[in-house]
Amino acid sequence: MTHTLLKHWSFIIDVARNSEKGIDASEERLKHVAGLRSEVYHLFKGFTNGEGRLLLVGCVDQQKQLREYGSIISEYHRYTSPNNAPATIVELESWRTKILDARGQLYKALNKAYQGAK
């Protein structure tokens, strides 16, 4: 998920940078962004599966962290909808930081569970 999401982010920020210079995105680039956006949407199934597995093995805190990470990704997904106003570079940089911070918190929680299972 993170890999695809960050690819989407890199294309979106490229479009925003060009837009600020007065350069319109090519149709091909917009199709690529739409494809990545669709891929992110479909990858959410893995989050649901992961949450279920975490709950199954008693990792409630880790499931909550995964849900929080998914929630931030969902907010980003809505924010970058083509139906919304174009995103600014500053806002997109902020989203990238939020996403990576949430991912870091998730991995920290997963590591804690892993260390406890040893």
Which short descriptors sum up this protein?
single chain; 118 residues; mainly alpha; 4 helices; elongated
What are the SSEs and their pairings?
Layout: H1 2-20, H2 27-56, H3 60-79, H4 89-117
Provide a descriptive summary of the structure in words.
This protein has 118 residues and is mostly helical. Helices cover 83% and strands 0% of the residues. It is built from 4 helices and no strands. Helix 1 (2-20) packs antiparallel against helix 4 (89-117) and helix 2 runs antiparallel to helix 3.
Count of structural domains:
1
β-strand amount = under 5%
Number of strands: 0
3D shape: elongated
Helix content: over 70%
Low-pLDDT runs of 5+ residues are none
The termini sit apart by 27 Å
Structural class: mainly alpha
Mean pLDDT over all positions: 93
Summed up, the helix count is 4
Order of helices and strands: HHHH
Report the radius of gyration as a whole number of Å: 16 Å
Biggest beta sheet attributes: none
Q: What is shown here, in short?
A:
By secondary structure, this protein is mainly alpha-helical. 83% of the residues lie in helices and 0% in strands.
